[in-house]
Amino acid sequence: MLSISSSKKEALFITSLIILWYSSNIGVLLLNKFLLSIYGFRFPIFLTMCHMSACAALSYLSIAFLKVVPLQRIKSGSQLLRISTLSVVFCGSVVGGNISLRYLPVSFNQAVGATTPFFTAVFAYLMTFKREAWLTYGALVPVVAGVVIASGGEPNFHLFGFIMCISATAARAFKSVLQGILLSSEGEKLNSMNLLLYMSPIAVLVLLPATLVMEPDVLEVTLSLGLEHKLMWVLLSVNSVAAYLANLSNFLVTKHTSALTLQVLGNAKGAVAVVISVLLFQNPVTFIGIGGYTMTVMGVIAYGEIKRRFK
């Protein structure tokens, strides 16, 4: 009876983590779209800085006081430089993604974002000369072809938004490969929560001057919106906390399940986000767009499965 009860508790815990991961990831995405495109809050760099500020504060709270994971200290100046490099690339990916949400519907944003494995494979080959089996590369053909088809069938296609979305996706893949190279030695490896703890304040330092230069009227407009819309500060706060919870739940789901489970759940998450966003924002979709997105997701699933078998 005790073992059954224990297994039920573990299953309930993992289910709760997955629900938190889904709700925080999709919540951040939809809130970003609402704030940047619908609400009139046109400051993607400042929004990213809010996210990073919350991640810095909550990471410190979780690690130093709640002991979610043991604190891993930076051991050298070169390690700090590597983390700073990762932080700048990470900033670029998040800012680019947020900018794209000003111009593109969430459904198309997710379709483009699903091409991350393609860019990861390209950067891995260019930077480490790591080759995959030809069958693995073949699975990437429908990933790219699906986005090309979805682009042609997207009623609200916006070239600048598309460029920013592709750039953000490429930067996300680049950061993943770069992280594997820069923090590959045993003495310098950091788990994702400690990496976030150190990357977040560096990101804030990078984003603050960028905000002041590129979004000089952010405080004036934000205060004005705050007076006009009483929920403005609540939305910003919830959005920023959700950004941290997305990182925390990502780490915990991987820890208590597996990277493969996370990949499968991630593919399903994209589809769920698309359905919810279409229902919520009522953006038009076409059969061509749906077909292209479906092809991309199927390609990503095939890529993951083939890569696992050839390991």
UniProtKB/TrEMBL annotation:
Principal place of residence: membrane
Keyword Cell cycle: no
Top-rank taxon, per record: Eukaryota
GO cellular component: membrane
Domain Sugar phosphate transporter positions: 14-303
Keyword tags: Membrane, Transmembrane, Transmembrane helix
Subcellular location: Membrane
Family annotation (InterPro entries): Sugar_P_trans_dom, TPT_transporter
Membrane topology per record: Multi-pass membrane protein
Transmembrane segments: 12-31, 43-68, 80-101, 107-127, 134-151, 157-174, 195-213, 233-253, 260-281, 287-306
Name of the protein described by the UniProt record: Sugar phosphate/phosphate translocator like
Organism expressing this protein natively: Actinidia chinensis var. chinensis (Chinese soft-hair kiwi)
Phylogenetic classification of the source organism: Eukaryota, Viridiplantae, Streptophyta, Embryophyta, Tracheophyta
